[in-house]
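Worked example 2:
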Amino acid sequence: MKKMIFGLVAILAFGIQSVSAQSTPASSDAPSVQVKDINGNPTNFNSSITPGKITIVSFWATWCGPCIKELQAIDEHYAEWQEKYNVKLIAVSIDDARNSRKVKPKVLAESWQYEILLDENMDLARAMNVNNPPMTFVYDQNGKMVHSHQGYMPGAEEELEQIIAGLAKK
């Protein structure tokens, strides 16, 4: 009887350890920086990196024409990428506190379904060495940063798709 109880306790402990190991990336490269969600609520950036999902992080601003073009180009493929590659995109606005009020209307006007974060003081941008937007990062399913790219040229979304397709096959 004692052996059976010990065995059950061991199985339960292993099961709980396995579940908690899956809920948080073991070694996420995402910095732990406080930002705000689109509604102004504080959140920690690294909690937005979802275990098991490929995560694209795009730094942008409402005043940045190439940023808007990049997010519009990705938007044309985003629903397909979500289904095909289990991907999510976090669009991090670096608009300052004065301009950040323009972010939500812009997102709503574009009908973007991305997770939107506000980095009004550029703390996250500094932590990730973002100098000028647009700047895009890709995190794999384990929270490891595997790609970064600065700037936008038409067609860059095709290169981005190749990267996420390769990660999805792993």
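The first helix runs from residue 2 to 23. Strands lie at 34-37, 42-44, 54-60, 87-93, 115-118, 135-139, 145-150.
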